[in-house]
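Do me a favour: review this protein, sequence plus C-alpha coordinates, and tell me how the chain folds. Record follows.
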Amino acid sequence: MSTDRHQLRLQISRKIYGTTAGGHTSVYKSTSGYELSEKRPFQISDNPKAVDLVSTITKDTWLVKVKNPDKGANIFMSWDVSGSHQFGPLGKSKLKFMSELSELLVAACVGEGNRVAMICHTEVVEHFTSLTTNRFLLEESSGFIKEGVFKRKGTNLNASIREIMECASTSGQKPDLVFIVSDFLAQDFEKKLRALAQEVDCVALVLREPVEEKFPALSGAMAVRDLETGKIFYASGLTNLYGDLSAWFKKNQITHVFMDTSRPVLENLDRLAQVLEDKFD
Protein backbone atom coordinates (compact mmCIF):
# COMPACT_ATOMS: atom_id res chain seq x y z
CA MET A 1 0.00 0.00 0.00
CA SER A 2 1.31 3.43 -0.94
CA THR A 3 2.20 6.05 1.66
CA ASP A 4 -0.76 8.22 0.59
CA ARG A 5 -3.20 5.35 1.10
CA HIS A 6 -1.60 4.54 4.40
CA GLN A 7 -1.99 8.13 5.58
CA LEU A 8 -5.61 8.43 4.41
CA ARG A 9 -6.60 5.21 6.17
CA LEU A 10 -4.78 6.32 9.30
CA GLN A 11 -6.51 9.70 9.20
CA ILE A 12 -9.98 8.15 8.96
CA SER A 13 -9.14 5.55 11.61
CA ARG A 14 -8.09 8.17 14.13
CA LYS A 15 -11.19 10.26 13.47
CA ILE A 16 -13.37 7.18 13.98
CA TYR A 17 -11.65 6.60 17.31
CA GLY A 18 -12.46 10.21 18.17
CA THR A 19 -16.10 9.59 17.29
CA THR A 20 -16.44 6.34 19.24
CA ALA A 21 -14.75 7.97 22.22
CA GLY A 22 -17.12 10.91 22.06
CA GLY A 23 -14.52 13.40 20.90
CA HIS A 24 -13.06 14.75 17.68
CA THR A 25 -9.56 14.30 16.40
CA SER A 26 -7.57 15.71 13.54
CA VAL A 27 -4.69 13.45 12.82
CA TYR A 28 -1.72 14.67 10.91
CA LYS A 29 -2.63 18.13 9.67
CA SER A 30 -1.09 21.06 11.48
CA THR A 31 -3.09 24.06 12.66
CA SER A 32 -1.40 26.22 10.01
CA GLY A 33 -3.03 24.24 7.23
CA TYR A 34 -0.14 22.01 6.28
CA GLU A 35 0.49 18.33 6.57
CA LEU A 36 2.82 17.42 9.37
CA SER A 37 6.20 18.12 7.90
CA GLU A 38 9.03 15.83 7.02
CA LYS A 39 12.65 16.86 7.42
CA ARG A 40 15.63 16.85 5.07
CA PRO A 41 19.24 18.09 5.16
CA PHE A 42 19.78 21.85 4.88
CA GLN A 43 20.68 23.21 1.43
CA ILE A 44 22.36 26.54 0.59
CA SER A 45 19.19 27.83 -1.08
CA ASP A 46 17.05 27.17 2.01
CA ASN A 47 15.72 29.92 4.26
CA PRO A 48 17.63 29.77 7.58
CA LYS A 49 14.32 30.27 9.39
CA ALA A 50 13.24 26.84 8.13
CA VAL A 51 15.93 25.09 10.17
CA ASP A 52 14.49 22.77 12.81
CA LEU A 53 16.72 23.52 15.79
CA VAL A 54 15.54 20.64 17.94
CA SER A 55 16.12 18.04 15.21
CA THR A 56 19.41 19.66 14.26
CA ILE A 57 20.73 19.32 17.82
CA THR A 58 19.38 15.77 18.17
CA LYS A 59 20.70 14.50 14.83
CA ASP A 60 23.88 16.57 14.91
CA THR A 61 23.25 17.82 11.37
CA TRP A 62 21.37 20.78 9.91
CA LEU A 63 17.78 19.80 9.09
CA VAL A 64 14.91 21.84 7.64
CA LYS A 65 11.16 21.24 7.77
CA VAL A 66 9.48 20.43 4.46
CA LYS A 67 5.87 21.56 4.43
CA ASN A 68 3.43 20.21 1.87
CA PRO A 69 0.14 22.02 1.20
CA ASP A 70 -2.97 20.13 2.31
CA LYS A 71 -4.23 17.70 -0.30
CA GLY A 72 -7.74 16.44 0.22
CA ALA A 73 -8.73 12.96 -0.93
CA ASN A 74 -11.61 11.78 -3.12
CA ILE A 75 -13.64 9.25 -1.12
CA PHE A 76 -16.57 7.35 -2.64
CA MET A 77 -19.16 5.46 -0.61
CA SER A 78 -21.44 2.87 -2.20
CA TRP A 79 -24.53 1.79 -0.24
CA ASP A 80 -26.62 -1.27 -1.17
CA VAL A 81 -30.22 -0.37 -0.28
CA SER A 82 -31.88 -3.39 -1.88
CA GLY A 83 -35.00 -5.09 -0.54
CA SER A 84 -33.31 -7.65 1.71
CA HIS A 85 -31.98 -4.79 3.84
CA GLN A 86 -35.50 -3.79 4.88
CA PHE A 87 -35.28 -6.48 7.53
CA GLY A 88 -32.95 -7.19 10.42
CA PRO A 89 -32.56 -8.58 13.94
CA LEU A 90 -34.91 -7.60 16.75
CA GLY A 91 -37.00 -5.42 14.46
CA LYS A 92 -34.07 -3.18 13.47
CA SER A 93 -33.60 -3.17 9.71
CA LYS A 94 -30.23 -3.17 8.01
CA LEU A 95 -31.27 0.11 6.38
CA LYS A 96 -31.53 1.75 9.79
CA PHE A 97 -28.13 0.32 10.67
CA MET A 98 -26.73 1.68 7.39
CA SER A 99 -28.28 5.09 7.97
CA GLU A 100 -26.55 5.40 11.34
CA LEU A 101 -23.32 4.01 9.92
CA SER A 102 -23.36 6.43 6.98
CA GLU A 103 -23.73 9.48 9.25
CA LEU A 104 -20.75 8.47 11.37
CA LEU A 105 -18.58 7.33 8.48
CA VAL A 106 -19.20 10.59 6.63
CA ALA A 107 -18.24 12.52 9.77
CA ALA A 108 -14.96 10.58 9.89
CA CYS A 109 -14.17 11.22 6.21
CA VAL A 110 -15.09 14.89 5.70
CA GLY A 111 -12.73 17.67 6.67
CA GLU A 112 -9.01 17.91 5.93
CA GLY A 113 -10.01 19.01 2.41
CA ASN A 114 -11.49 15.59 1.63
CA ARG A 115 -14.32 15.31 -0.91
CA VAL A 116 -16.93 12.59 -0.44
CA ALA A 117 -19.43 11.12 -2.91
CA MET A 118 -22.44 8.99 -1.88
CA ILE A 119 -24.07 6.40 -4.14
CA CYS A 120 -27.17 4.44 -3.10
CA HIS A 121 -28.16 1.58 -5.38
CA THR A 122 -30.59 -1.29 -5.81
CA GLU A 123 -30.65 -2.74 -9.33
CA VAL A 124 -30.03 0.84 -10.46
CA VAL A 125 -28.46 3.92 -8.94
CA GLU A 126 -31.24 5.32 -6.75
CA HIS A 127 -29.40 8.36 -5.37
CA PHE A 128 -26.09 10.05 -6.12
CA THR A 129 -24.36 12.94 -4.36
CA SER A 130 -21.28 13.92 -6.35
CA LEU A 131 -17.94 14.70 -4.72
CA THR A 132 -18.40 17.46 -2.18
CA THR A 133 -16.92 18.84 1.00
CA ASN A 134 -20.40 19.86 2.19
CA ARG A 135 -21.35 17.63 5.10
CA PHE A 136 -24.98 18.79 5.02
CA LEU A 137 -25.45 17.50 1.45
CA LEU A 138 -23.95 14.18 2.48
CA GLU A 139 -26.26 13.98 5.49
CA GLU A 140 -29.17 14.23 3.06
CA SER A 141 -27.93 11.00 1.51
CA SER A 142 -28.01 9.37 4.94
CA GLY A 143 -31.58 10.59 5.24
CA PHE A 144 -32.38 9.03 1.87
CA ILE A 145 -31.19 5.66 3.19
CA LYS A 146 -33.26 6.08 6.35
CA GLU A 147 -36.46 6.89 4.43
CA GLY A 148 -36.24 3.54 2.63
CA VAL A 149 -38.30 4.56 -0.40
CA PHE A 150 -36.68 3.15 -3.54
CA LYS A 151 -37.72 2.38 -7.10
CA ARG A 152 -36.51 -1.22 -7.16
CA LYS A 153 -36.00 -4.07 -4.70
CA GLY A 154 -33.27 -6.11 -6.37
CA THR A 155 -29.56 -5.47 -6.19
CA ASN A 156 -26.82 -4.89 -8.74
CA LEU A 157 -23.50 -3.81 -7.27
CA ASN A 158 -22.15 -3.38 -10.79
CA ALA A 159 -24.44 -0.36 -11.26
CA SER A 160 -22.70 1.44 -8.41
CA ILE A 161 -19.22 0.43 -9.58
CA ARG A 162 -20.00 1.72 -13.09
CA GLU A 163 -21.16 5.04 -11.60
CA ILE A 164 -17.87 5.38 -9.71
CA MET A 165 -15.82 4.62 -12.81
CA GLU A 166 -17.85 6.95 -15.02
CA CYS A 167 -17.63 9.77 -12.49
CA ALA A 168 -13.85 9.35 -12.31
CA SER A 169 -13.61 9.29 -16.10
CA THR A 170 -15.79 12.34 -16.81
CA SER A 171 -14.58 14.53 -13.95
CA GLY A 172 -10.95 13.49 -13.96
CA GLN A 173 -11.18 13.04 -10.18
CA LYS A 174 -9.91 9.54 -9.52
CA PRO A 175 -11.06 7.95 -6.25
CA ASP A 176 -8.44 7.64 -3.53
CA LEU A 177 -10.61 5.36 -1.39
CA VAL A 178 -13.88 3.53 -1.98
CA PHE A 179 -16.10 2.11 0.77
CA ILE A 180 -18.57 -0.48 -0.52
CA VAL A 181 -21.36 -1.39 1.91
CA SER A 182 -23.42 -4.47 1.06
CA ASP A 183 -24.14 -8.03 2.13
CA PHE A 184 -22.38 -9.04 -1.12
CA LEU A 185 -24.77 -11.93 -1.65
CA ALA A 186 -25.61 -10.77 -5.17
CA GLN A 187 -23.95 -12.61 -8.02
CA ASP A 188 -21.62 -11.46 -10.80
CA PHE A 189 -20.06 -8.44 -9.08
CA GLU A 190 -16.63 -10.07 -8.81
CA LYS A 191 -15.19 -9.07 -12.19
CA LYS A 192 -15.96 -5.35 -11.89
CA LEU A 193 -15.05 -5.12 -8.21
CA ARG A 194 -11.73 -6.86 -8.88
CA ALA A 195 -11.01 -4.39 -11.70
CA LEU A 196 -11.90 -1.42 -9.48
CA ALA A 197 -9.73 -2.69 -6.62
CA GLN A 198 -6.76 -2.99 -8.97
CA GLU A 199 -7.01 0.75 -9.65
CA VAL A 200 -8.02 2.26 -6.30
CA ASP A 201 -8.03 1.38 -2.61
CA CYS A 202 -11.28 -0.43 -1.76
CA VAL A 203 -12.72 -1.35 1.63
CA ALA A 204 -15.70 -3.73 1.68
CA LEU A 205 -18.05 -3.39 4.65
CA VAL A 206 -19.94 -6.68 4.68
CA LEU A 207 -23.33 -6.50 6.42
CA ARG A 208 -24.08 -9.73 8.19
CA GLU A 209 -26.27 -11.24 10.86
CA PRO A 210 -25.25 -14.33 12.83
CA VAL A 211 -28.53 -16.01 11.89
CA GLU A 212 -27.69 -15.66 8.20
CA GLU A 213 -24.28 -17.25 8.35
CA LYS A 214 -25.39 -20.85 8.10
CA PHE A 215 -28.48 -22.78 7.23
CA PRO A 216 -29.08 -25.75 9.50
CA ALA A 217 -28.04 -29.19 8.30
CA LEU A 218 -30.85 -30.51 6.13
CA SER A 219 -31.72 -34.05 5.15
CA GLY A 220 -33.61 -32.73 2.16
CA ALA A 221 -34.20 -29.22 0.86
CA MET A 222 -35.73 -26.11 2.39
CA ALA A 223 -37.82 -23.60 0.43
CA VAL A 224 -36.43 -20.07 0.81
CA ARG A 225 -38.07 -16.89 -0.51
CA ASP A 226 -35.81 -14.19 -1.94
CA LEU A 227 -36.90 -10.96 -0.21
CA GLU A 228 -35.72 -8.88 -3.18
CA THR A 229 -37.41 -10.73 -6.04
CA GLY A 230 -40.10 -12.73 -4.25
CA LYS A 231 -38.91 -15.89 -6.02
CA ILE A 232 -38.65 -19.23 -4.27
CA PHE A 233 -35.45 -21.28 -4.38
CA TYR A 234 -34.34 -24.38 -2.52
CA ALA A 235 -31.34 -24.68 -0.20
CA SER A 236 -29.94 -28.04 0.80
CA GLY A 237 -27.13 -29.17 3.07
CA LEU A 238 -25.05 -26.82 5.19
CA THR A 239 -24.50 -23.52 3.37
CA ASN A 240 -21.83 -21.10 4.54
CA LEU A 241 -22.82 -17.74 3.12
CA TYR A 242 -19.74 -15.76 4.13
CA GLY A 243 -16.78 -18.14 4.27
CA ASP A 244 -16.24 -18.24 0.51
CA LEU A 245 -16.82 -14.49 0.29
CA SER A 246 -14.09 -13.78 2.84
CA ALA A 247 -11.70 -16.08 0.95
CA TRP A 248 -12.46 -14.22 -2.29
CA PHE A 249 -11.68 -10.83 -0.73
CA LYS A 250 -8.39 -12.14 0.66
CA LYS A 251 -7.42 -13.69 -2.67
CA ASN A 252 -7.98 -10.37 -4.43
CA GLN A 253 -6.30 -8.36 -1.64
CA ILE A 254 -9.41 -6.33 -0.90
CA THR A 255 -9.72 -5.16 2.70
CA HIS A 256 -13.02 -6.33 4.15
CA VAL A 257 -14.72 -5.90 7.51
CA PHE A 258 -17.76 -7.86 8.66
CA MET A 259 -20.33 -5.49 10.15
CA ASP A 260 -22.57 -7.32 12.61
CA THR A 261 -25.93 -5.58 12.28
CA SER A 262 -27.12 -7.15 15.54
CA ARG A 263 -24.47 -5.15 17.40
CA PRO A 264 -24.26 -1.36 18.01
CA VAL A 265 -22.97 0.73 15.10
CA LEU A 266 -20.20 2.27 17.23
CA GLU A 267 -18.89 -1.19 18.08
CA ASN A 268 -18.66 -2.01 14.36
CA LEU A 269 -17.00 1.32 13.62
CA ASP A 270 -14.37 0.57 16.24
CA ARG A 271 -13.59 -2.69 14.44
CA LEU A 272 -13.32 -0.79 11.14
CA ALA A 273 -10.90 1.69 12.72
CA GLN A 274 -8.67 -1.16 13.89
CA VAL A 275 -8.57 -2.65 10.39
CA LEU A 276 -7.82 0.69 8.73
CA GLU A 277 -5.01 1.36 11.19
CA ASP A 278 -3.46 -2.10 11.34
CA LYS A 279 -3.85 -3.65 7.90
CA PHE A 280 -1.56 -1.90 5.51
CA ASP A 281 -1.23 -4.39 2.66
The CA atoms of residues 74 and 173 lie 7 Å apart.
